[in-house]
Write a structure and sequence with these properties.
It is a single chain. By secondary structure, the protein is of the alpha/beta class. It has helices at 41-49, 76-81, 99-106, 113-126, 128-132, 143-155, 173-188, 200-206, 224-229, 231-237, and strands at residues 2-11, 15-25, 30-34, 57-66, 69-70, 84-87, 161-165, 192-196, 209-214, 217-223. The strands form two sheets. A six-stranded mixed sheet has the order 6-7-8-3-9-10, sandwiched between helices. A four-stranded antiparallel sheet has the order 2-1-4-5, covered by helices on one side. Strand 7 (161-165), helix 7 (173-188) and strand 8 form a beta-alpha-beta unit. Helix 3 runs parallel beside helix 6. The protein binds adenosine-5'-triphosphate. Adenosine-5'-triphosphate binds at residues 11-12, 15, 17, 35, 37-43, 55-56. Belongs to the ABC transporter superfamily. One of its GO terms (molecular function) is ATP binding. It comes from Parafrankia irregularis. Keywords: Amino-acid transport, ATP-binding, Nucleotide-binding, Transport.
């Protein structure tokens, strides 16, 4: 479904954040991306979602295709229309707007009114709390609820591929578990997911395949089960010796 080939990215023409990265996500697949701070995980998601330029980054080489269609020269809005949506790190919601307005803003990328209505009812099913809080300003939600809203807003454009950047960061354990359940539920609805997570145990349990990025390069790739069993991953990310 998603194919990244030979991707290299720099920031400000100097900092090389990704070097010759290749990976693929099959139809209905979940790919987990592991790696330490600064490894290039967010950069990878930004490259796919067409938002590198907002961060001063640029693609120097490589291609990104979705179902065989090249998207690496398209702008972010057109990539959303192609069905690829990123939930950025830090659950950025419009704090001064209501929950409802945040969701409506997400629907701007929907392919049709019918698709937007379908997406809306699915989001309400997944996140009943957002219905209860619909008239509240987003800034008043808890961290976990804001994360639900950020994911809900992304789902409003009825994506086929969802890019999640550390959705469990800073959340309480119960909420982390809930985020995991939600990702699994989204996947059950047939949406592909690329999941960047510090919480490797959860992320590998949710994924079919996984890659480890190390200073901008893919250092390990395989099935999620293979990576969970790998000595390198166990030592670095799973807290086992
Ligand atoms: P983290 O887990 O800390 O978010 P990451 O794996 O997502 O890390 P990136 O944020 O993609 O890593 O960063 C990869 C490299 O690019 C790092 O060296 C980082 O300092 C650099 N970098 C990231 N964003 C920018 C930016 N906007 N301008 C300049 N350099 C950047």
């Amino acid at each position: 479904m998603l194919e990244v080939a030979g991707l290299s990215v720099t920031y400000g023409g100097a900092v090389q954040a990704l070097r010759d990265v290749s990976l693929r996500v099959p139809e209905r697949g979940v790919l987990t991306v592991l790696g330490s701070n600064g490894a290039g995980k967010s950069t990878l998601l930004r490259a796919v979602s067409g938002t590198l330029d907002r961060h001063g980054g640029q693609r120097d080489a490589g291609t990104i295709t979705v179902d065989g269609t090249a998207i690496h020269r398209r702008d972010a809005a057109s990539i959303v229309r192609a069905g690829v949506v990123q939930v950025p790190e830090g659950r950025r919601v419009f704090g001064h707007l209501t929950v409802d307005d945040n969701l409506r803003a997400g629907a701007a990328g929907a392919r049709s009114r019918a698709a937007a209505a379908r997406a809306r009812s699915r989001v309400e099913e997944l996140f009943p709390i957002l219905v209860t809080r619909s008239r509240q300003r987003a800034a008043l939600l808890s961290g976990g609820e804001q994360q639900m809203l950020a994911i809900g807003r992304a789902l409003m454009s009825d994506p086929r591929l969802l890019l999640l950047d550390e959705p469990s960061l800073g959340l309480a354990p119960l909420m982390i578990q809930r985020v995991g359940e939600i990702v699994a539920e989204i996947h059950r609805h047939g949406v592909c997911v690329v999941l960047v997570e510090q919480n490797a145990t959860m992320a590998l349990a949710l994924a079919d395949t996984a890659v480890v990025l190390d200073v901008g390069q893919v250092s390990l790739a395989g099935s999620a089960a293979e990576l969970a069993a790998s000595e390198q991953v166990r030592q670095l990310y799973l807290g086992h010796g």
